[in-house]
Structures are given as C-alpha cells and as structure tokens.
Amino acid sequence: MNAFEPGQINNVEEMKEENMVLETERLDDLDATKAEGNSFTVEDEKRLVRKLDLWLLPLMMITYFLQSYDKGIMSAATQFGFNSDLGLTRIIGHEADGTAITNNQKYSNASMIFYIGYLVGTYPMMYLSQHYPTSRVIAGATFLWGAVVMSTAGCHSYAGIMVNRFFLGFLESTVAPAFTVLVTFWWTREEQALRTSLWYCCVGVATTLSPLINYGLGQIHSSLKPWKPIFLILGAITVCWSFVLLFTLPDNPLTTKRLNEAERKIVISRLERNNAGTLTREFNKAQFFEAFRDYKLYSCTLIILLTGVPSGAIGTFGTVVINGFGFSHFDSLALTCPIGAITALTILFFGYVTRKWNNLRYLCIIVSALISIVGTVIAWTGPRSNRGLLFAGVFLIAVQVAAGALAVSLAASNMAGHTKKATVSATTFVGYCVGNVIGPEIFGASPGPVYHAGFMGSCICLCCVVVIAAVTWVLLRRENAKRNRVTGGTVHLHGVDEDLSDIQNKDFRYVL
C-alpha cells in the first residue's frame, strides 16, 4: 500500500523543547482548505471524527460499563446475605459497643481470584486479539463472561465461587487491553487521551448506577435467595450485548465496510501522523522483547498497579467499609453512588485537560494522586466518631482512578509498532491485576471496621505514583530534547506500511 502523504510539519524548532511531540495540529487550527498532498478538507476530517465518536465510543463505553458492573456485583450482593450464604465472612469478636469484629479473608480471596484469572488470561487474549478479528474475540469473550455471571447464582460454597470468579476474570481480561490498542487505530495521539478517558470512566459510571439498581433487584421476591436474581438478570443483559458487538464493532479501518474509500484515506492519513506503525496481524518477536527492555512499560505498569491497590480495595470493600462507619445497608449502597460519580467526572476532567493542553498527562497523574493521598490520610487517621469526615476521605480516594486512566492512555500514545503496543497494553493490565489483588488482600488482612493497614498501604502506593510519574516526565523530556538535537528539529512522517517501534523511529516524539 502506498503511503498517503499529508502535509509536512515545519518549523518545529520554534517550539519549546518540552512541548515537542509528534502530533498533528489540532483540527480547529488546520487550514479550512485542502492541505498540500491531501484530497480532503478539514471539514471532511471533522465529519469523520464525529462519525467515529458516535459509532465506536458508545460500543466501547457500554462494553466497559458492563465489564465493570459485572465484576462488581459481588460487592453489592454482600448486602443481601451473599457472604453468610457462602461462608465468606466470620465474626472473630466484638468491640466495647457491641460492634462485631469480622474476618473477611475468604471474601477478599473471592475478590482476589478474579484478578488472578485476569492475570492468567491477559496474554492469551492479547495473542488472540492480534491474530484473529478483534471484534470477534471481544464479542465471544463478552458472551462467555455473561454466561459465567449468570452461573454465579448456582454457587453454594466457597470453592464454587472461587472457580466462578477465576473464569470471570479470565474472560474479562480481553476488553481493556484490546480497547487500548483499538483507540490507536482510529484516533490521533492528541485525541487518544480523551477517547480513552471516555470508555475508561465507565468504571465510575457503573459504580454510580449499580448500587441503586442492585438494591432494586435485591428486593425481588421469589423462591431464590435475594442476591441470585441480580446475577441472573445482569448476566443475561451482557449475553445479549455480545450479539450487538458481533455485528457492529469493526476490526480495523482497513477492513471495515462502514467506511467508504474517501473516509478510509482520511483514516490512513491520520494514522500516518501518529508515526506509530502499521496495522498487522504478524507477531513481531523483536518488538515483543523490546517492550520489556523499555522503561516506559514499567513506568505505566507500576502507575496502574499502584493506583489499582486503593481502587481495587474500594471496589471490593467499599460498601463494607462504609457500612463499618455506622451507615445502614441501604445507605452503604447509596453512598457508593457519589464515589462512582467522582471517579467518572475526574477521569473525564483530566482527559479534557490533556486534550485541551498538550504535555500535561504526567502532571495530571501527580495532581490526582496527591488529592487521593489526602483522602487516605483522612480515612486512616480520622476520628471514628466523625463518619462524615471518614466518608469524605473515601470520596477523595476515588480521584486517583484518573491517574490509572492517564497511564493507560500513555501506554498507547508513547509506543509505536503494533506488537509492541499490544504487549505494553497487556502488561499494563497485568499491573492492574496485581494491584487489584494486593488491595483487597491488604484490607482483608486488616481487621474491620477500621482497616488501618489497608488505608496506610494505599497511602504509600499513591506516594510512589507521584515519584514514578515525576521521574518518567524528566526522562521523556530529555529524550525528546535529544531527538530534536539529532534530527535538527526536522520531523518526518512515516506511512502505515512501516512497522517501526518508537525506539527505531527517531522522528517519534513522546507525549508528556
């Protein structure tokens, strides 16, 4: 395929070194006339971007919403006798006022095994997504995990729920890594952070909407235990959604029938602006090993891992922790709604900020982590008599999820070469799994209702996020400056038929 030649980017030496990134000019700054060498106008490109946003983003957002909702059903089910029916919680004593001191180790294990399954499934699913049509792999996995959610209603023992949650995690591991790479197929690097934020924020949307929905479903009167209809109904919805994905989610821009030839040319031109490699089903062994020699992989993975500790703990123990503050079962469910809302809104806010102004992603990671550090300190050291203050601490902890979302977008935007991008994406979500294993384990091993060790551990993790983000920013800024000196400030674009990694391609500039 011949490379489609967009206009050259000139005068980059006039830009400040710290703002040097290989990105196209913003759409609203482009000439309204045809660019040199292009057969389309800025209006054509804007129409295409709107089409992609209205077509692809809803599919990704609803799928990730269902994934987040389905994995979190177990937390809501604890308010309807789930733990006692399956023997996941036991009372080990009482406080002076009669409050029960509980051991939740089995419950935390049931949460942990989901992420073990996710961890085991990540690389096999990455392999399948690269070698077979991505849309078919995602649709198939969605169908199967919906069936697993429905089968949870048949669990009646600790062993049964452990097996069930393992396979749920294994199947759900398909979506997030695949979406991270899929975003790079359709949007330019300057557009990717906001689009990633839009589907990633659905974890917060699920947390906002699910408590009240689950409470309503838990009121269904039938011969079944109150928690069982929740799994049956929501699992069935996911199964139905898998058929929508099968027929509407495209594989890549070069093969989809939903684009005409003119639109396809615009997509190819936009891909070339990214200087990020080709669309290919071939596994590049050199890029695979290069990914594991690249410090950016470990930076993104560690940020996602460390933010996964508090988010995994709150996701699993949120209702239990809030209930321990002295709130009723219904109030505990209802109060998780604003936690989900702040999660979604902060992800979108930082996504918008990084779309509006370049090179602020690492700064936004640091700011969101610092806000949540304050929250962990409040929940860790605040007086137990002031439950409003304690809840405010948990509320602030939710802000750090935005740091993980930004790290996901950086894993996509700062890597080139299809195999390398896929490998880095999968590895970052291995970090996500590990963090979500550690978080519930820390809280499970920390006696309720105070969970001091859990909040202290979360505070330490977020402090590490601040350090890692700052160091990575310095290293990438230096690398961009070095490349500017080597190339003399001249940046050349590479076609989608060149599968170069970001290290091989010296015209690649890193997003800060």
Automatic annotation (TrEMBL):
Upper taxonomic lineage: Eukaryota, Fungi, Dikarya, Ascomycota, Pezizomycotina
Q: Which organism is it from?
A: Exophiala sideris
Q: Which residues cross the membrane?
A: 112-129, 141-161, 167-186, 229-249, 302-327, 333-353, 360-382, 388-412, 424-443, 455-476
PANTHER family annotated for this entry? Answer: PERMEASE-RELATED, TRANSPORTER, PUTATIVE (AFU_ORTHOLOGUE AFUA_1G17530)-RELATED
The UniProt record lists the Major facilitator superfamily (MFS) profile domain at 56-481
* Recorded topology in the membrane: Multi-pass membrane protein
Recite the UniProt keywords alphabetically: Membrane, Transmembrane, Transmembrane helix, Transport
Question: In its keyword annotation, does this UniProt entry include Membrane?
Answer: yes
List, alphabetically, the Pfam families matched: MFS_1 (PF07690)
Compartments where found: Membrane
Q: Kindly provide the name given to this protein in its UniProt entry.
A: Major facilitator superfamily (MFS) profile domain-containing protein
